[in-house]
């Protein structure tokens, strides 16, 4: 039997384990995680806190028992204290204090990411929380249920910050949303799109504090105020959603790292040590839009990287096809989706790009159920290759972004898109639909 140890059992680790257990009977799979649960869909935390779903139970999609039935050895509430990369031993400590080690032939690191903690005065006060694990969601949900919690500060207006701000507002609390950037969701969308989201948030009563950086928390035992570069605000609860860093503690002194500390992997998810693979948020990936290695922490990327690593460890050479970083958000009925690079992101990477915008009704004007759709397609100036797309609407236009993801992967040009065969039916779209019209408008 070939011994494979997987450290970390969330999306990437689970995908790797399933791939090995379902396809390679010669594999002895051991899964180790310091958490008491596995497979929590963190992207559902805001839905549960905001009472848009009935309970959190369905946010877990598999169990320890299901893996044991497939033949895996699963150690939960178990900390990996160190790895001896030369004798190929993983040294562990269980929650009951027992120490033991396991030997491996191949090791898959799926240790994920850790929330960025602001190193500012008062950061050890009570009622300052992060949102990562199930237990974090539980703690925030319980606090939001208390009548004494009236004002909540959310630090960071990325996806997690905006989603939890909406959720807490839905629970009837006052919400202050802070970010050092001049707008929300600035990593994914250009200002023309985020302006619409910021108006949407403001209209629903969320107090926006952009271009503001937290400099201290004040309070005796619990947090009572947040201090920024622009003022001081009374709050009862702080939720930090600044972002994440790759959790590289176990291998950072042995493996080659990317600029931000992620494990540098090749297209087979293999690290600089041939017997070690890294998957999910602790590892790099290849961006087809940029044409180079980068870091994008998304659950969908984690799952794909786990599948790729699983097959390679199992003995089937399988290369990753790269990613576009496709993503989406739905807040108070406003849906926004994007893939690849925004104009701002492309410029940061010194890429010369052009873009084409178009706004129209999704369906012909005579259709009663109808909504406006805005689209931006970003393309390289010289090659005319499509490198990004953004869309927003009050209707569900999310499936269209998958086409743009494929367009980026296949290096399609904006000119090829102009005459692409797109069907027409009044129930769905217009004869000259927004995608065709945006492409036709391109310089």
From TrEMBL:
Keywords: FAD, Flavoprotein, NAD, Oxidation, Oxidoreductase, Redox-active center
Pfam families: Pyr_redox_2, Pyr_redox_dim
Annotated FAD/NAD(P)-binding domain residues: 3-306
InterPro entries xrefs: FAD-bd_OxRdtase (IPR050260), FAD/NAD-bd_sf (IPR036188), FAD/NAD-binding_dom (IPR023753), FAD/NAD-linked_Rdtase_dimer_sf (IPR016156), NOXase (IPR058076), Pyr_nucl-diS_OxRdtase_dimer (IPR004099)
Reactions listed under catalytic activity: 2 NADH + O2 + 2 H(+) = 2 NAD(+) + 2 H2O
EC top class named in words: oxidoreductase
Keyword check for NAD: yes
NCBIfam families for this protein: NOXase_Strep
Name used for this protein in its record: NADH oxidase
Organism per entry: Enterococcus caccae ATCC BAA-1240
Lineage: Bacteria, Bacillati, Bacillota, Bacilli, Lactobacillales
